[in-house]
Amino acid sequence: MFVLRRINVDVAKRFFSSSAGVHAAKVSVLGAAGGIGQPLSLLLKKNELISELSLYDIVNTPGVAADISHINTNSKVTGFIPENEGLKHALSDSTIIVIPAGVPRKPGMTRDDLFNTNASIVRDLAAAAVKYAPKAFLAIISNPVNSTLPIVSEVFKKHGVYDPKRLFGVTTLDVVRASRFVSEIKGTNPKDENVTVVGGHSGVTIVPLLSQTRQKFTEEELKALTHRIQFGGDEVVKAKAGTGSATLSMAFAAARFTDSLLRAIVLGESGIIEPTYVKSDLFSSEGVDYFASNVELSREGVGKIHPLGSISPYEEQLIGAALPELKSNIRKGEEFVANN
Ligand SMILES: NC(=O)c1ccc[n+]([C@@H]2O[C@H](COP(=O)([O-])OP(=O)(O)OC[C@H]3O[C@@H](n4cnc5c(N)ncnc54)[C@H](O)[C@@H]3O)[C@@H](O)[C@H]2O)c1
Ligand SMILES: O=C(O)C[C@H](O)C(=O)O
Question: Does the keyword Oxidoreductase apply (predicted)?
Answer without folding.
Answer: yes
